Amino acid sequence: MIIAIDGPAASGKGTLARRIAAAYGLPHLDSGLLYRAVAWSLIARGVALEDAGQAEAAARGLDAAALGDPALRSEAAGAGASVVSAYPPVRAALLDFQRQFAATPPGAVIDGRDIGTVICPQAEVKIFVTASPEERARRRTRELLGRGEAVDEAAILADIRARDERDMNRSAAPLKPAADAALLDTTALDADAAFAAAAAIVDARALKTV
Ligand code: CDP
Ligand code: CDP
């Protein structure tokens, strides 16, 4: 079974994907980490994010062992990821890894922006998670504060809006719900309530495919 969970920054899709994966016994892939790793490899070497050729080379040479680097969780890596992820050759270079992850039994839970639309259009379950930009900025602020990082909520809201804008308006695999995705607005839901709603969607869809 393949479960695709897409949505904008800080909508809670990663937290949801981890919990769904644990509950259904499936491996989990956070596809955003791949784009973050490409961006971080440029940032760490002082290469401009606008250098599409270097970004493509980094995507082709990506080593799965690099995905555990805590630096990938920074806002700088996230913002950089949304720049390099707009380059079609970068997306093409990361496609096979994601498809193979999904195709390996017993299946997978993958979260990102284009999992239900491009990477796994055949996924049995597709959930598009949303929340208002203000609520997403509050969540990211709380998360960063919890990690002891200095934060400015207004700057985080501005970054989230800029990222939404770039992700929705790019021509390569723009952020949008698949036609057959279930929409899950978590603005008023905590992580437990979001998980319960998502599990009900998974159960209903999985039943239909037996
Ligand atoms: O956790 P958050 O939503 O903040 O970020 P992420 O999922 O790690 O994604 C970082 C950036 O990578 C996004 O803003 C997208 O531009 C890009 N991305 C993408 O293009 N396609 C994906 N499947 C996943 C991420
Ligand atoms: O992966 P994405 O960027 O969409 O979001 P996340 O990293 O899973 O979640 C961002 C923060 O929101 C985390 O600290 C979660 O604990 C919190 N949160 C959530 O995931 N779901 C809710 N319904 C409410 C809060």
UniProtKB/TrEMBL annotation:
Residues 3-192 form the Cytidylate kinase domain. It catalyses: dCMP + ATP = dCDP + ADP; CMP + ATP = CDP + ADP. Keywords: ATP-binding, Cytoplasm, Kinase, Nucleotide-binding, Transferase. Its EC number is 2.7.4.25. Pfam families: Cytidylate_kin. It is found in: Cytoplasm. The keyword Cytoplasm applies. ATP binds at G7, P8, A9, A10, S11, G12, K13, G14, T15. One of its GO terms (molecular function) is kinase activity. Belongs to the cytidylate kinase family. Type 1 subfamily. This is Cytidylate kinase. It comes from Methylopila musalis. The lineage of its organism: Bacteria, Pseudomonadati, Pseudomonadota, Alphaproteobacteria, Hyphomicrobiales. The gene is cmk.
